[in-house]
Structure formats: structure tokens, C-alpha cells
Write a structure and sequence with these properties.
With 238 residues, the chain is of the alpha+beta class. It is 59% helix and 12% strand. The longest helix is centred in the middle third of the chain and has 22 residues, at 130-151. It is elongated.
Length: 238
């Protein structure tokens, strides 16, 4: 526990570049996976279930039938109103977790990093450079910000309109394309599931591709990840 509090999931908090324990990163992804799952259930409820609430206590038989000989009832029906304060709070928390994991100092404020580091301590560490993970979490942070706008379009539109002094975005309906929320949740679920189950980091692969084409410069991972103790031990055995 003490070691988890001191080093978190880093091999050495003072080295440069930084390396993190891939095992702990995968455990953390599994923990945070619960949030997009909940958001997916929210969107399923909004998109695929009834948009109306029927007060069954007010049901009255009209003694009439429709074309299919089904009995017609009259009842008090209200349109459902959706309130996303809980979902917004969870997205803000995910955004906080993604940003806090990018630096040693801010990592100490992340509950999920402490938990994942603790559960990973009994497993052999797999050290990976932090830079690709930072890139992947940056993509995740952009997705989280887009989700915040999707769940709070009127608030965002109000800020934009106030900033420019005129109505650029409507505040009476969601100006984002239909299906945006569902698509973003599927993206989050897929990326985090791949990270948790297979250890496949999509953002890291994009980072590697950008390094390969020269968009991003990266230090030699193999050069900075040498196990000098093991090398000395092998030399002595020769």
C-alpha cells in the first residue's frame, strides 16, 4: 500500500521519460468502463423506450375498440422530461481522471490510479512509456468534452451566444447531429474494452502511426527501457 502511494503506477516518478505500469492502466480502464456503460443505458432508455408516462390510476375503459379489435382506454399521459445532472457529473469525473493521469503531481488526486496501482502490485509490472498513453487520454478527453456538450446543448449554446453577442446556436433543441451521443458512447466502450481485455490501446496505435510519419517525435523506447541490472547479471554469468 505504501509503495502504491509513493510511486503510484510509475516505475520512477523522477525519471524522464516517465514509464507507467501497463497492468495498472488496464485495471483502471476496467474501472472507468462502468461509466460509459451507464451512459449507454441512459441513451437506450431515451432513444428506445416510451417518451410518455401513463398514470395507470387514471385508466378508463372507453368501451371502444380499434381496427384490430383492441380495447381503447383513456388515461392521463405526460411527456417524459430527461434530466442529465448525474450523467454530466460522471462525465466531468471521467474528464478529471483522464487529465489527472497525464502528470505525476495531478495523478496523486486520482482515486482510480490509487486503486489500480494497489490491485496491480501483486502482478509482474509491464512498463510502457507514458507519452502514448497521454495521447490516448487526450483523445478520450476530447470525446468526454463532446459528450458534455451533447448532454447539455442549451448551456453550451448559451455560452457561445453570450461570447459572440448573437444567436449562433439554438437553445431550444439539440443542435448536434442525431445519434452523436450513441456513437460517442460506443467509441468509449470499444476503446476501453479493448484496453481492459486485450491490452490494445487504440490511441497508442494512432500515436505510433503519427511518430512513424514524422508528425510526432519520440525518444527510443528500447534505449530508455534497458534493464541494466539484468544486463550486468548476464555479463557475470558469461
Amino acid at each position: 500500500m505504501k509503495q502504491s502511494l509513493i510511486n503510484l503506477w510509475y516505475r520512477d516518478t523522477k525519471e524522464s521519460p516517465l514509464y507507467v505500469n501497463e497492468t495498472a492502466v488496464r485495471i483502471r480502464a476496467g474501472i472507468l468502463l462502468l461509466i460509459p456503460l451507464f451512459l449507454g443505458l441512459t441513451l437506450y432508455d431515451v432513444v428506445y423506450t416510451s417518451k410518455y408516462l401513463v398514470d395507470t390510476n387514471t385508466l378508463v375503459d372507453t368501451y371502444e375498440t380499434n381496427m384490430d379489435d383492441h380495447i381503447i382506454y383513456a388515461a392521463e399521459v405526460t411527456h417524459r422530461v430527461y434530466e442529465y445532472s448525474l450523467q454530466t457529473g460522471l462525465i466531468f469525473y471521467v474528464l478529471f481522471e483522464l487529465l489527472s493521469g497525464m502528470f505525476v503531481f495531478t495523478s496523486r488526486f486520482s482515486p482510480s490510479i490509487f486503486i489500480s496501482s494497489y490491485f496491480a502490485k501483486n502482478h509482474p509490472p509491464v512498463w510502457k512509456p507514458l507519452a502514448p498513453k497521454r495521447f490516448a487520454w487526450t483523445i478520450g478527453a476530447l470525446v468526454a468534452c463532446t459528450c458534455l456538450i451533447f448532454f447539455n446543448p442549451d448551456t453550451f449554446a448559451g455560452w457561445v451566444n453570450a461570447l459572440f453577442g448573437r444567436e449562433l446556436l439554438t437553445t431550444t433543441e439539440n443542435f448536434m447531429p442525431k445519434g452523436t451521443g450513441t456513437s460517442l458512447v460506443w467509441v468509449c466502450l470499444s476503446f476501453m474494452w479493448l484496453e481492459t481485455v486485450f491490452g490494445f490501446c487504440v490511441g497508442c496505435k494512432i500515436h505510433a502511426l503519427l511518430v512513424k510519419v514524422g508528425v510526432i517525435k519520440e525518444e527510443c523506447e528500447a534505449c530508455n527501457n534497458l534493464d541494466w541490472d539484468q544486463i550486468a547479471k548476464n555479463k557475470n554469468q558469461v
